[in-house]
Amino acid sequence: MVRKQFPDAKSKEVALAAFSLMIELSESNQEAASALQDIGLSARKGSDKDA
After folding, report:
1. What residue spans define the domains of the chain?
2. Per-residue pLDDT, 8
3. Cβ of 36: how many Cβ atoms within 10 Å?
4. How far apart, in whole angstroms, are the C-alpha atoms of residue 6 and residue 15?
5. Shortest CA distance to 12 belongs to which of 36, 37, 35, 45?
6. How far, in whole angstroms, is CA 15 from its chain's centroid?
7. Helix (H, G, I), strand (E, B), or coil: what is residue 5?
């Protein structure tokens, strides 16, 4: 989903954005924060390919 909207984004950028937004949402929307954590972790696993 994220890759379709931002095909040129590096995995590190996707992970950073997801974790930043997760922190903002963590108090008000736990379900969204959990979904963003999954995106961030998934992108982070792929960040070795960008290095």
Report:
1. 2-50
2. 92
3. 21
4. 13
5. 45
6. 4
7. helix
Give the pLDDT confidence of 1-51 residue by residue, as tens digits: 677 888 898 888 888 887 888 788 788 888 887 887 888 788 777 655 554
Would the CA dihedral through 29, 32, 36, 38 be positive or negative? positive
Q: At 18, is the secondary structure helix, strand, or coil? A: helix
Instruction: With H, G, I as helix, E, B as strand and everything else as coil, classify residue 48.
Output: helix
Using the structure block, give the residue that is written with the tokens 């929307």.
Answer: 29
H or E stretch including 14? helix 11-25
Q: What angle do CA 17, 14, 16 make, to 5 degrees?
A: 40
